[in-house]
Amino acid sequence: MQKLFEKGETQGEKIETPTKVQDIHTPQLETCVRGLEAAIREKDSHIQYIESVLKEKETALNNIYKSKGWKALLICYRLIDKIFPINTKRRLLVKVILKTTTEPRRIYKTISITNLKKFFYCFRTVESTLLQKEIEKKISELSKVNKVDQGVKKSNKPYPNLLQALSHVIDQEWLDVLIQSVGQPIIRGVKLPGFPPDQFQRNSVGSFGETALREIFPFYCEIKRYADELGLTITKDSHILDFGCGWGRIIRFFLKDVLADNLHGIDVDPEMIGLCKKLFGYGNFSVCNPSPPTEFPDNSCNIVFAYSVFSHLAEPVHIKWIEEFSRILKPGGILVATTEARHFIEFCKFLRGKKHDWEYYKGLANSFVDTEAALADYDNGKFLYSATGGGAARPSSFYGEAVIPRAYIEREWTKYLEFRDFVDDRGLSFQAMVVMQKPFAAS
Fold first, then answer.
1. Buried b (16+ CB within 10 A) or exposed e, 151-163
2. Is residue 263 within a helix (H) or strand (E), and if so which, with residue range?
3. More confident residue, 14 or 376
4. Could you read off the pLDDT of 160-193 as tens digits, one per residue?
5. pLDDT of 31-84, one tens digit each?
6. Of 125, 142, 159, at which residue does a domain stop?
7. Whether 205 and 126 share a structural domain
8. 343-351 and 27-66 helices cross at what angle (nearest 10)?
9. Are residues 128 and 175 in the same domain?
10. Dihedral of CA 293/310/240/330: which sign?
11. Does residue 11 form part of some domain?
12. Residues in contact with 162: Cβ distance below 8 Å, sequence separation at least 6, in sequence order
């Protein structure tokens, strides 16, 4: 192999061997080189965009560290350590009483007595150069694996014991358990949901394994936080619907909170539903039509969530689904969905003029070509849509790239549900998040 790129002699005859890969003319090598070059171009484009996003996040994070709220947070952190020393009964009792799913991005904004109960979770998720070692130590102390191992007994029934074992585990620890399940699907006889092949995961959600779980974890936490804030406590008897469930990346998180029989996932792709049935072994998964109605009875679901679904639906179809969810949600029930945000239009512009081998990026590069007009339409509250299609199960007749501004949602979605929030925060998710609620029944 070394001689291939050097001058050498064979049978007394000098041979000038190629010094560059492109000089070797074999079909296999040429194909390999083209593939590598395409992959490098694709990665370079993505890296450039990610670097610009990271720069924005770094600026925002620095502002947080300089804020009075952050300084107050550090003081409270050290105060709790002094009042409730580690490895004491007082510390354990407080942790059990004050466990929460509140994510950290809102805590630093408002420091008050009521937020003290949220600090434990905050310390375990916010990275700080000052507290990083202490945080890692506390994560080790609160090992989720030991809790699951102690609480789970061997059983042929996959879920009931899991629910019992995890009833006292906070969400961050549950994330760690699910990450462990990527390589260890069975813990003490309890079968956790499996995962499709890595490449399949990457093609469907852009990542796989631990990364795919960590990316979606904040969305799970937000659903629970909004449910709590809007007077909708999640219990084991709650009914939750994952609209566009894919291979079950998100719905598995709710196995800690809700009985498996009360979890429902629907998708237009039969392959995805087949995977869910195979990987889970419990829960309820079924193929749905591109347009409603569904088979769910009126007032049957407490929560409907849809991650990266309304970011693809054409306007007439997506309105029909909003109307359908207003029918199947119970009074007080919530819809938490995502859609492409304003910066997605600029991302499509960023992709233009570059060579892409990934069909998805090709579609994006040809979407919203008149960037200035698209941005103006967004700012004026118009629905933006590019009919790119997404494979055999997702024809362009209803599937493409959708960008829905807040003004449109407040104008159109409120015909069926009450508006609660619109969050465009790339620190939380690349897509914008919308929260709607069905009015409580009149007393």
1. bbeeeeebbebbe
2. strand 263-267
3. 376
4. 446 666 667 788 888 988 999 999 888 666 788 9
5. 555 656 666 666 666 676 677 667 777 777 777 777 877 777 777 777 777 776
6. 142
7. no
8. 150
9. no
10. negative
11. no
12. 152, 190, 192, 255, 256
